[in-house]
Amino acid sequence: MPSRRRTLLKVIILGDSGVGKTSLMNQYVNKKFSNQYKATIGADFLTKEVQFEDRLFTLQIWDTAGQERFQSLGVAFYRGADCCVLVYDVNSMKSFDSLNNWREEFLIQASPSDPENFPFVVLGNKTDVDDGNSRVVSEKKARSWCASKGNIPYFETSAKEGVNVEEAFQCIAKNSLKSGEEEEIYLPDTIDVVSSSQPRSTGCEC
């Protein structure tokens, strides 16, 4: 019986507290949205299997806390990432202005081998709020920032209504594949303790 092999793609979602990181992840993975806001403590992740060109991939999506007091946890979660998603609220200029800090922090903590070409994707979320009348960050401004950082792909999303969420994560998955080292991982039916003589194959340098 052949072992079940998957290629693991690790995605990190960053952004200020309250911009909708958890909601975006839940909408994509579970097709669910909750109006009840609950701040993420530390970090959490969901997985979803995606298929490209007859190959199956496991997308491991890490949702991290936006509060500054949890940023020291970053190193363990950022390492081994294949793509970083930067999220802001189109109704909050402060959350947009924070994107640069989140991007820089990620590059410092994750230490990717090729920081100049590491794949980022930017999501402008909450486009549904007040039918767009509360919006303070224009699409033009956001796209200009993305262009200045190496033409980062940009999507405007509504986690609540599911607008552009699927399309954004398809782009995220494809960019994760481009980040270089694809890693075949063995997913056993039971968890085995890896002996010290065997190399770890998780890709996580936590």
Name the descriptors:
alpha/beta, 7 strands, 206 residues, 7-stranded mixed beta sheet, Rossmann fold, disordered C terminus, single chain
Which runs of at least 5 residues are low in confidence (pLDDT < 50)? 181-206
Name the helix and strand elements from N-terminus to C-terminus, one letter apiece. EHEEHEHHEHEHE
CATH topology-level fold name: Rossmann fold
Radius of gyration: 17 Å
Q: Quickly count the helices.
A: 6
Structural domains: how many? 1
Q: Strand-residue fraction?
A: 15-25%
Topology summary:
Blueprint (H helix, E strand, L loop, with lengths): L4 E10 L6 H10 L12 E10 L2 E10 L9 H5 L4 E7 L3 H5 L1 H12 L9 E6 L13 H10 L5 E3 L8 H14 L5 E3 L20
Parallel strand pairs: 1-3, 1-4, 4-5, 5-6
Antiparallel strand pairs: 1-7, 2-3
